[in-house]
Design goal:
This protein is α+β, with helices and mostly antiparallel strands. The chain is built from eight helices and eleven strands. Helix content is 49%, strand content 25%. The longest helix is centred in the N-terminal third of the chain and has 60 residues. It is elongated, with a radius of gyration of 31 Å.
């Protein structure tokens, strides 16, 4: 017959609830760690994308658009000899190619020379501006201070020199690779499965790590409007609990967001429950042996 002493009974009860409590604590600690890690990964992505990639690109664009060679070609083109025209065009084209090669995100770079109604591209050379080009330039009047422009599902880094009527006079635009953006989103290390996307101007999805990310973004609906520019918010999407992690760049006019399903945060802690149960069972039998040993010693 096993004699149950109050102190030992308390220990056995403690051993029974220990795995549950420990698993819960592991889940909470791990979940917070993963969320903070995801937030840091998004902030780092934006910093690297802007500071190391686009800022360098924008600086080169600004340097070229302010070069006298651009204005000279646009305003005195008809006065140059055939040789001078070819030489100046090739020089500018080489510089455009240099800008394009300076960033892994750059697809192609063009200068729009409105006085002569022509466009110089790093790949195709000099050509007449099309109606699409005219529309692209006209759109710049709507947001003259913005360095980024969305046009027919393409993203551009844009700089321009304006005339006295604030009309774009010379414009330099570099198309940004959405494919490269998607690749970088897929490579984001957050420590837990997450669906990421980049949203431009509040409602244009530039790139996403998966179709699921776009679906979640659409299903979240009005909840997205109340999200802070950066930080973490818990939300219910499609009947499931998610953590939405956000980071924002005013320069890019873009927000990067990551959707982390709450139940995925407990997956790591749950892996340890069998081990904890095994440890508890072993400890329980040890207590039984100690109880019996104590009984024999007393009697």
């Amino acid at each position: 017959m096993l004699i149950e002493y109050p102190g030992i009974s308390f220990c056995t009860r403690g051993l029974r609830i220990a795995p549950i409590r420990t698993a819960g604590e592991l889940s909470a600690v791990h979940g917070l760690s993963v969320i903070r890690s995801s937030e840091s990964a998004l902030e780092t992505f934006l910093y690297c994308f802007f500071m190391e990639k686009l800022e360098r690109l924008f600086s080169l664009e600004t340097e070229l658009i302010n070069d006298s060679a651009v204005g000279s070609l646009a305003t005195r083109y008809d006065y140059f000899s055939i040789y001078e025209k070819g030489s100046r065009i090739n020089t500018l084209r080489d510089r455009l190619s240099g800008i394009c090669k300076s960033s892994a995100y750059a697809v192609t770079t063009s200068i729009y020379l409105r006085p002569m109604q022509m466009k110089l591209n790093d790949a195709s050379g000099l050509d007449l501006m099309t109606s699409e080009d005219e529309s692209f330039i006209a759109e710049l009047k709507r947001n003259p201070r913005s360095a980024m422009r969305m046009d027919e599902d393409a993203l551009y880094s844009v700089v321009c020199i304006r005339d006295t009527m604030n009309e774009p006079y010379y414009t330099l635009a570099t198309e940004i690779s959405r494919k490269k953006l998607r690749e970088d989103l897929l490579n984001l290390e957050s420590g837990v499965p997450a669906d990421c996307l980049i949203v431009f101007d509040g409602d244009n999805v530039l790139a996403s790590s998966s179709e699921r990310a776009r679906t979640l973004w659409k299903q979240a609906g009005s909840q997205m409007e109340s999200l802070p520019s950066r930080g973490i918010r818990r939300a219910s999407i499609g009947g499931e609990a998610y953590y939405i992690i956000s980071a924002y760049s005013p320069f890019l006019r873009a927000r990067i967001q990551s959707f982390v399903q709450e139940k995925s945060l407990t997956s790591v802690a749950s892996k340890y429950i069998p081990y904890l149960m095994g440890l508890t069972i072993a400890a329980f039998f040890l207590v039984v042996v100690l109880c019996n040993g104590t009984r024999v010693m007393i009697h």
